[in-house]
């Protein structure tokens, strides 16, 4: 159903796919007129590196949500979004649960997020971001108005951060 909807919606500006976005849908979006401003993918488990490879085609994106999807592609996607989407205003990255594993690097998403200079709203749910990573984001994203960092257990809020 999502495939047919994307095929028929030439030039769509927003797509919210809950469990329906896969690599094929992303390739359809990639080959359609590049007017996509909002892409929200929720519980889309069949997305891998295709998303990182396709993001440069979505350079008009202002909003990107990746929630409850495979966390393996998060860091590479963040870097590509930071480099390719200068209009990004709202970014949401949510894992289904906090992963406390050594194989998953701490702060791997920070480099990409710090490149999203025009960001106004950031939600990181169950990410392995540290206090230093959060500080880097706050110093880089000076237009940030809304910050949601629930279940980011590597962050210790210092008095200076709370005061700002």
UniProtKB/TrEMBL annotation:
The record ties this protein, via Gene3D superfamilies, to: Ribonuclease Inhibitor (3.80.10.10)
Q: What is the name of the protein in this document?
A: F-box domain-containing protein
């Amino acid at each position: 159903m999502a495939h047919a909807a994307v095929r028929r919606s030439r030039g769509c500006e927003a797509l919210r796919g809950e469990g329906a976005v896969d690599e094929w849908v992303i390739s359809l979006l990639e080959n359609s007129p590049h007017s996509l401003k909002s892409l929200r993918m929720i519980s889309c488990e069949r997305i891998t590196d295709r998303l990182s490879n396709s993001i440069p085609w979505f350079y008009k994106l202002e909003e990107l949500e990746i929630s409850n999807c495979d966390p393996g592609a998060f860091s590479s996607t963040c870097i590509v979004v930071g480099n390719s989407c200068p209009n990004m205003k709202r970014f949401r990255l949510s894992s289904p649960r906090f992963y406390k594993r050594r194989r998953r690097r701490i702060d791997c998403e920070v480099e990409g997020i710090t490149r999203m200079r025009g960001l106004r709203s950031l939600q990181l749910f169950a990410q392995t971001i540290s206090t230093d990573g959060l500080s880097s984001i706050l110093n880089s994203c000076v237009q940030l108005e809304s910050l949601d960092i629930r279940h980011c257990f590597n962050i210790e809020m210092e008095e200076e951060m709370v005061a700002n």
